Amino acid sequence: MKRQADPSHPAHTIEDIHAALAARRLDLEQLAARMRAVGPESDKRGEIVGPPWRPDDIPALNLNLVPEAYGGCSQTQSLVAQATLMAWLAEADASLALALPGPGLAMPPVVALASEAQQALFFQRFQSATPRWGAFAITEPDCGSDATAMRTSVRRTAHGWVLNGTKCFITNGARADCVITFATINRQMGRYGIRAFVVDRDIPGFSVTRVEKMSGLRASQLAMLSFNDCEVPDEAMLARGDEKPLDDAFSGAQRSWDYFRPLLSAVIVGTCRRIRAELAAWLAGGRPAASRLRVTEVDALLLDIDRQIASAWLLCHCTAWKTDQGIATSMESSMTKAYASRVAARVTRTALDVAGIDGVAARPALEQGYRDAKAFDIMEGTGDFQRLMIARAALRSPQRPWATA
C-alpha cells in the first residue's frame, strides 16, 4: 500500500507536522500538554479522561490517517510523517496516543480491499465534529497467532450477510463506531475463504462483551466483540470488483499489520524517550538511583539507553520509508516491532533499577512506562511470533532486509 505525501511538500519533521495540523486548527503542543495532564488518571480508570482534546481539535483528529482524497491532511499522508507524529504524541502518553479518534487500524484494509464507492462511504463518517473511531477485528480467543484459523463465520442470505463469532483484544473496540471485521465463508478454504466486512456498532447482533483489564495501555480499551446473527447488507463486504479467484481479504489484514507495526514501534520509541527524560530529570536532582552505581556508571547507562532508542527509531524510520515507496515490508515491519518492544522492555527495566523506589514514587511515569512495555510485546503479534515470522521470511529469500532493491 503506497500513500505517499506530495514530494514537493514533505512533512517528515515534527515542525512540519505542527504547521500542517495548525492550519487545520489542531494545536499539537496544547494537545500533548493535556495528554500529559490527564494521562495518569486515564491509566488509573482505563478510559479517556478529560478528554484531552478541544472541540476545535476533533475534525483534524478524526481525519488523521484518512487519505487525502477523502479529506485527510495532504502533508501527513506518508507513513514516515505518521510515525514521526505518533512518536511525538507517545512522549506525552502512549495509551492516549493510541486512543485518539480516527479510523486507526481500519484504514489499511479499506484502502487495500474496498471499491472507491466503499472507501468514500467509509471515510465520510470521519468528516465529523464529534469524535469517531474505527477498529480492526481479526484476533480470536482460540486461534492464537494463526489468524487464518479463525472461527468467526459468515453466510450469505437473501438480504446480505450474517456473521457469527467472537473477536478479542480489539484496540478501541469498545468505543468504535464501525469495525472492519474478518470472517470466513468456509474454514476449509483457509485464507482464501476470508472476507472483510464493515460492521456498524448499532447493527443488531453486534455487542461489546467486555473491556479487558490491562496492565498497560489501559486507555486504548482492548475489547472483546461478539457477533450473534449479525446481519449486514451486501455492500458491507469490502470488494474492489476486480478480484481474481485466488484473491483474499487476508492480504488486507497483512497490509494492516505491515502498516501499523511501524506506527506502533514509533509509539514505543516515544515511550522510551519519555522514560529516558523522566529518569534524567530525577537524576538531575542529585539523587543517585542506587548506591551501588557510580556517576560514571549512571552516565554510561543513559548513553546506552540513548543508543538503543536511536537504533529503534532508525529501524522504524527505514521501514516506514520503504512502505511509502511501495516496497513490501512484511519482514521489516516484524523486525521493527520485535526490536522496538525489546528495547522498551530493557529501557524501562533499567530506568526502574536506576531510579529505585524513591525515583519511581517521585516519577510515576516510570512505572506506567514499564507496564506499557509489557503490553507492547503483545500488541500486533507477540515478540516471539515476530521473530518466527522474521526467520521464515529470511529462509524464503537470501535478500537482506536493509536492501532497497
UniProtKB/TrEMBL annotation:
Domain Acyl-CoA dehydrogenase/oxidase C-terminal: 253-394
Cofactor: FAD
Domain Acyl-CoA oxidase/dehydrogenase middle stretches: 135-230
Pfam families on file: Acyl-CoA_dh_1 (PF00441), Acyl-CoA_dh_M (PF02770)
GO molecular function annotations of the record: acyl-CoA dehydrogenase activity; flavin adenine dinucleotide binding
Superkingdom field: Bacteria
Keyword Ribosomal protein: no
InterPro entries given in the database record: Acyl-CoA_Oxase/DH_mid-dom, Acyl-CoA_Oxase/DH_mid-dom_sf, AcylCo_DH-like_C, AcylCo_DH/oxidase_C, AcylCoA_DH/ox_N_sf, AcylCoA_DH/oxidase_NM_dom_sf
UniProt keyword Flavoprotein, yes or no: yes
Alphabetized UniProt keyword annotations: FAD, Flavoprotein, Oxidoreductase
Family as reported in the entry's similarity comment: Belongs to the acyl-CoA dehydrogenase family.
PANTHER family, A to Z: ACYL-COA DEHYDROGENASE, ISOVALERYL-COA DEHYDROGENASE, MITOCHONDRIAL-RELATED
UniProt name for this protein: Acyl-CoA dehydrogenase
Natural source organism: Burkholderia multivorans
